[in-house]
Give the backbone structure.
Amino acid sequence: MGRFILLINGPNLNLLGTREPHIYGHATLNDIATAATAQAKSLGATLVAFQSNHEGAIVDRIHEARGNIDAIVINPGAYTHTSVAIRDALLGVDIPFIELHLSNPHTREPFRHVSYLSDKAASVICGMGAHGYTAAVEFAANYLKIKDRKR
Ligand SMILES: O=C(O)[C@@H]1C=C(O)[C@@H](O)[C@H](O)C1
């Protein structure tokens, strides 16, 4: 059965391509979503992409995933470091998720060293730039195939 992966990008990631390219690279969010969509398809999954600058909209989108999404790949942006609400939404819908960052927050300002998600994530990918997205989708697709085999 085809699997559905939800890709969530949080605040300011809509600026990718021109936003501090020395940190976040030159790939646009559209470039990233296009590559992730193709990667998912090549692995027999379907990717649904979502981006919002608003915490509540991200929470609502996570709620909407219940019953129709098998895995979530999320770059929460700055909400990584602040949002109990997004943590609670992910735990509340009980969908496995991968936490993803373009940069390696552990090499940056101390306030970026804290994540409200990492201890509950199936995997944390950071520091790989745009390649992290295709790596996360590959992990998600394989994670779901292993789950299927265990059924
Ligand atoms: O590397 C990233 O993708 C993350 C993206 C952001 O917007 C920052 O607020 C995070 O601290 C890091």
